[in-house]
Fold each of these.
Amino acid sequence: MARRERGFTMIEMAVVTSILALTIPGLYLFARTLDDHHQIGLWHLEVADGVRTAGEELRADARAARLLPGEDIRFQRPGPCSPISYVVAPGGALVRGAPPGCEPPRALATHVVSARRVAAGVELGFQLELRPGAEQRRTVFLPVGE
Amino acid sequence: MRRSAGATLIELMVVVALIGISAGAAGMAVRHEREAGLAELQRELAAQLMEYHAGCLASGRRPDAAALQRLEESLPSARVRVYRRGRLATVTVSWTSMNGLEQRRSLSVFAKGSQ
């Protein structure tokens, strides 16, 4: 009987390499898709939470104060702690702030890229950047006051 | 008896089947997570629409057409119904979720004046 050399033949190595070359990109894409779905699910939950919190704060301020004219979201109320402003801070947080010495600023929502006045309310833009070129966007309108 | 080295076809099939089942389960779980997140956002958007109507009824003012249009654009499948019995008004918002089921939320308020 012929002696069998130890190790793999060139054909065996080529077959294994081909199979790996086919499966590894597939597995990578599958894992990335799973991670994207996971991130998007969490992002939707955070957007929902932000919409709830920001909506309640905006309505409360609209009841107690007057929305100042202009493009910025600012409320004028009686007393020194005025105006109250809503701005998008670096990092994507919607922050409600009062003048220094008054109540501390509070982050109401995350993943916010824009907050602007529109007819009868405020429009918040939310964005999730999964990777360059792959983004999720959502615009939510919050009615404010009259 | 000679036992050749390596795995049999059955062993390979079992391993491949186990990997496939695990991957499928992981995929289903993550997909469910994504749909649950979107469903929560839809519930919140429906609540915004419902609370706007309820706020208008409670304060006796007419809903702003522009605000209503924008709210309805956020959740296109939403339908609003208002039932009134005396001063008590019930706002019901129904919408179709991603899995095709009809969802519903209601809020009752004491209405001011007549609309």
Amino acid sequence: MLFGHAGELLSVKWKIYKVIFRYSKAIEDPEGAGQFPLTYDLSSDPGERWELGSLKGDNAWVFTPVFAEVAKYEASAKKYPNIKPGQDFNGYK
Amino acid sequence: MATDQPSNSKPNIVFILVDNVGWGDFGVYGGQTPTPRIDKLASEGVRFNNYNVEIECTPSRSAIMTGRMPVRSGTSVVTFGVPYGLAPFEYTVAQLLSDAGYATALYGKWHLGDVQGRFPSDKGFDEWWGRPNTWDEAGYTSYPLFKESGMKPPMLMEGKKGQPSTPAMPLDLSVRGIVDEKYLIPKTIDFIQRNAAAKKPFFVYLGYSEVHPPIVPNPNFADKSTQRGGLYSDIIGEMDFRVGQVLDAIEGAGIADNTLVVLSSDNGTSSSIAATPGGSSGPWREISSLRRSKAAVVPLRSYVGRDTCLPEASPMRCWRPRTGYRRSPASPVRRISSPRTARSTASMPQRSFLAKARPADAIRLCCSVTQANCCQSNGRSTR
């Protein structure tokens, strides 16, 4: 999982696939979301140049295992809240 | 105009919704693939030049079914893997027609809910066969890792009103290229013939599968014509033939003079998807899964009688002129071709030709701005 400057989820890798929820094209550009998450097959396309939704349009099944990973993370973050930057933290109760 | 048609008569309605077809894909709109059957269909009825659809499959289908803005229904976008679809509250055109005594059926794509209670047979259709969601699921099982995704293989399903819908067969690439030929068209034709024989008014909704990715060419049409040079063109060529099959069935059943045929696309082309290379949205901005749509347009035939156009009885007769929007002029070759701006929310049929509709419908339909006589070439809208 990759997170952005504001702590929001940018992308998730699941096996050979990478799904990008939010991204920024350059430092001066805002982070934003596409209309649908972007999916790349890193086994064929490690440079992330051929987005599967725009290439084939039959890849949405990949979102399911990715959402499952996200749900696991969110459940964990709820149980064990993320430490805020600079926060005094002495361990979970 | 067939003005002698009694206002409470019940014409049969054949609604063909093709998938991701662009404004400019048919010959009648300047498309380069010959589409003689569709062109003739358009020449016999009303051709809308400025019919505005929603941004993608689910919202357009929602608007067509309910006459409401999809944002009101929680159906304004395509979702994946999360609950969605028409809420029990929604009252569809199929329910309206069913309540008015019509036999109703859907064959093909629904994309308005994939759980019990939200299938077509739960929303006014006596029977249905097809895919609850979308055709791109046909490609899922072609990915080796799909088996590890935790998802069940996509199924084509079937159902009857009052019963739970059940899986019919797997939806995969082996059926993708023949689902229209072998299943959707024969089922549609059978339904037409059954109800024509029983003399029962009917509404059949054919959710045609192409040109939605992944597109697989039908072997009878792939590389078979010197007038077509590629995948997209072959798909459009087949579509024209299939539409012709349905029209022939209507003709053959002897009900052509009391049947409305509406042919529409749900949104514009998805030509920015490499797997569906081609297509034209004409002068309009393209829609695809990654582009917003401004407009796509339907060719439409709504007629009662071969030469008598009855646009005021069309399920899509209602119009919403857009303020400040300059409309393209009507084509001079059209007997009736409307330049007025229409919208897919305007698809709920009017009570004028229905025996019965609930009073509450008027409130429910407030989003679909309705106007009478708006399809007439000189008709002026009231708002």
